[in-house]
Amino acid sequence: MQLWILIEIQSILTNYKLGINPISLTVFFGSIIVQLFRKTIIYKFIMAISYKIEIYNKNQSKDPHKIKTRPKIESLFKEQN
Question: Which end of the chain is more exposed for a tag (fewer CB within 10 A), N or C?
C-alpha cells in the first residue's frame, strides 16, 4: 500500500507541474479514506448484514409460490385434520 501511495503522490505532483487541475487529489484522499474505512468494525458489520440479507433473499426466491406461514399455525391445522 505504501508503494501505491508514493505512486499516487508522484502522479499528483507531475500533474500539478504540468498545469493539469489536480482533481486526482480528491480521488487520492478519497481512496485512502475508503481503505481505512474497510478496516473498521462498522464496515465489517455492514458487510455481514448485507451478506445475511443476500442469503435470505436467495432462500426466499427458491419457491416464490410457497405460502409462508408460521410453524405453530401449520401444526394447528394438522391437528384439526
Answer: C
Q: What is the pLDDT of residues 21-57, one digit of tens each?
A: 566 667 777 788 888 887 788 888 888 888 888 877 7
Instruction: Give residue limits of the domains in the chain.
Output: 2-62
DSSP per position, 16-79: HHHT---THHHHHHHHHHHHHHTTSHHHHHHHHHHHHHHHHHHHHTS-TTSPP--HHHHHHHHH
Distance CA 70, CA 78 (A): 13
